[in-house]
Amino acid sequence: MTLADTAQTTAESSLGSLVAQMANAIAASHYPKGDHAALRRWAPDQAVPLAFYRLWLHYLAADLPPEGQTPAWMTLAWGLAMLGEGAHDPRRPLGQALAETKFAEGRLERLLSAPEEVRLKLFMDAVRFLAAKGESFDWREAAQFLLITDPAKREALHRRIAAAFYRHQHKEF
Amino acid sequence: MYDLLTDPLIGVHTPEGVQRVTLPELLAGLSAGKINGYTGLRAHQADPWHVFLVQLAASIQARHPTAALPTDPGYWRDGLLDLAEGKPSAWHLVWEEVTQPAFMQHPWTDTDKDESSTFKVTATSPDELDVVMTARGHDIKSARTHNSDIEAWLFAIVTSQTISPYGGGKGTIHGVVRMNSGIGSRCIVAWVADPHPSKRFIRETQRSIRERSKILEQGFKFRQQGVCLTWIKPWNRKENQFTIEDLEPFFIESCRFIRLVSTNGEISVRRAPTRPQVGPDSFRNGNVGDPWLPIVSKTQAALNIKAPGFSPQIITDLVFFNRIEKHGFLLAEQLDDYGFLIGSVLASDGNCKTDGFYHIELPVPPKARLAIINKQSRETLGHLAQQLLADAKTVQQILDTALVLLSEGGCGPEKPDCEPEKPDFERVKAWLANSRKDFSRHWEAQFFPALWRGAEEAPEAVRQGWQQYLIDGAQALLDQAIERLPLPANRTWRAITQAQGVFRAMLHKKELLRPQRNRIESLTPEEATS
């Protein structure tokens, strides 16, 4: 394994483990119901609830994310709370989950082509759709979807989500 | 007027600086190795002019052999006059007595004089005379050279009379015989040790003297000493002027019946309709022993090159004699002959239109020269060349499929209810054509460097590197297409995914490598936003 590969793996695992920790913390039986409800009630135009800071500082025992990333991490916390226990399945890509729940192709097109200002809202709509069907998926991809800002990296991620979506959608025909 | 034998009409670069010289002085200067270049010769005129000079020199040498090419202009002047059978007007660019020949212009008969008012004025400036139909292909605007530029008239008439194809005119405007039929194109191709004008002239003249003997033995029925300058004899225009039996191997064609006329100091060109100059008509496959003209083995006819000119496939055929006869200047005599493969052609579309001028100057590295000259390694390299070409073709097809799928919005057989997008079809079609050209440019530029590496490295390693280069290039073009092609708004991601999917799947099916693309990196929260 080269040094670059090691760095890559470390980078992936650091985000992956953070997402996994957050999913486990929110799904844990001892996680306060009040905090759980506060996370689920959050909407993008509202202030970040105290439950979010408590999640980071107390349950994850980590430093708070940079201020610019707070909405993205809050959205992740909201989504994990929405889906509840078993929300995070690292072996099931987001595209696959959307395809298998018959998420409309047009909606996926809009989600992946969305301008910055509605990106978060459309992602939340997709999460609500999956939550309504009790689906789980790989939340690392969700984290990447919300956190990556570099156009080339974002494009590559979109391709990966779309590829998984169409690959599993085609099983229908 | 404007006597090539005595008037210094030709601008040249010499070690002493720029000079103007006569034609005999030019031949002497070339023989002495003192001509470094020309001041007024255009790119597309260079090879026809070179061939013209070598044919002249070799024909003079055949009549008056010398140990080395003479550096005395007197020798060449006498030789030129001798070729013209003592008619000095044959070397004048403009000669008012029309019953006498002028340079590359036939003498008129009494009938011609009577009919001269019906002769068409075809040019009033040099580049209107110069293979006129090539103007768009040469990227030069016609009528840019001035009427009074005599040197430009000289080069234009040589080019026109030496490489003109069939020009229509209801079957009355014919081209040269050194091409496969009237709708073909005359290629000029040779291995050249050094493209320096003087060095190339000396080497090819010396080789031409030997080639001339071979051509005479080959049963073309040329005469040892026949007509060399075809314009010195009258031509009734209603019949072929010559058969091969009248001519000698390096006969210099003057394929069209034209005359430069000077009126009040202004030169214009008049042209009359004719039969083809060299007959019979059944004899039009171009195979007349010309050492610069490649011959196709199967048909024994001259190679006809169309746009886009010297493709890697054609060059490979020439270098390794795939379907091409081992003949003329495609056969090197010494190792250093394989320095450069130089070629030019005025491509014809077969419809009285030309399709551009194409030129190659392909340098060959020393190790590759050794591989080419050795029979066994030449075959190995030739085989590798075919494999590299086949790989390029395969990846091109894969890319084409992916691009078409992309442009149609990702509609494939698995989605029968999906109607392919057809808005702006012409634009998309043009875009696809450009993408194909981009890919061709991408690999053609690297084809020969990759091939020559095969002379030093294991062919398998070269091929693997080549395939990776092709695949990465195709992936980059596909990515570019995804960014730029106007995709249907409601199917963007379907189109992207399907195109990418089919691209990868076809690579896999053909047992080719995957593209080396950057994966998503730096996925730490901090780095993701950097």
From TrEMBL, chain A:
Entry protein name: Type I-E CRISPR-associated protein Cse2/CasB
Q: Give the source species.
A: Thermochromatium tepidum ATCC 43061
Per its UniProt record, what InterPro entries does this chain match?
CRISPR-assoc_prot_Cse2, Cse2_sf
UniProtKB/TrEMBL annotation, chain B:
- Note the superkingdom of the native organism: Bacteria
Specify the protein name. Type I-E CRISPR-associated protein Cse1/CasA
